[in-house]
Design brief:
It contains 7 helices and 3 strands. It is mostly helical and 164 residues long. It folds into 2 domains: 66 residues; 67 residues, no CATH class. A 3-stranded antiparallel sheet has the order 1-2-3, with no helix packed on it. The protein is flat, with a radius of gyration of 21 Å.
């Protein structure tokens, strides 16, 4: 794709998937507004939907990357792909995060929202490459307490807890 003198590489799969997600979000927002415009019925859905659309615009903008002349040299495109983390190790990280998220969702009732959130944050940080013991100890604890208190404040729904 060319705009002016600059040639852009478009990540079509990423753009198509995120566009499909944005279409579903907009359809859901329109459906919510069609059912009720009462503030108490839309107080959570509308802000989250608008934030998601904002994130989509950011993602869509970054799906267009300018090509540089040095990428046309044989072999350098492969080196760039390795630097960006593509390949088997990145695929294993993605699969590991998917499994961790699935286990998190399944363990919410068993372990409680607080312990499950703490464990998920710990495992996610480890999968993403964090090895500092101080960060692995303190950040999941702070995140777990923060998420639990935020959800208790926003959603008056009794959630299963183990400690809090």
């Amino acid at each position: 794709m060319r705009i002016g003198r600059t040639r852009y590489r478009v990540e079509w799969a990423h753009l198509a998937f995120s566009t499909a997600m944005a279409i579903v979000i907009v359809a859901y927002l329109l459906d919510v507004r069609a059912v009720s415009t009462n503030l108490m019925n839309t107080i959570f859905v509308q802000p989250v939907g608008l934030i998601a659309i904002s994130i989509y615009l950011f993602i869509a903008f970054h799906c267009f990357r300018p090509e540089t002349a040095d990428l046309k040299v044989a072999g350098e495109a492969d080196a760039l792909d390795e630097e960006q983390g593509e390949g088997l190790p990145e695929t294993l990280r993605v699969v590991g995060m998917m499994v961790a998220l699935g286990l998190y969702a399944c363990s919410l009732n068993l372990l409680g929202f607080d312990i499950a959130t703490w464990l998920f944050a710990l495992v996610a940080m480890f999968i993403c490459g964090e090895r500092s013991p101080r960060k692995l100890i303190f950040f999941p604890i702070i995140l777990g307490f923060g998420v639990v208190y935020l959800f208790q404040y926003i959603i008056p729904f009794p959630m299963p807890m183990s400690i809090i």
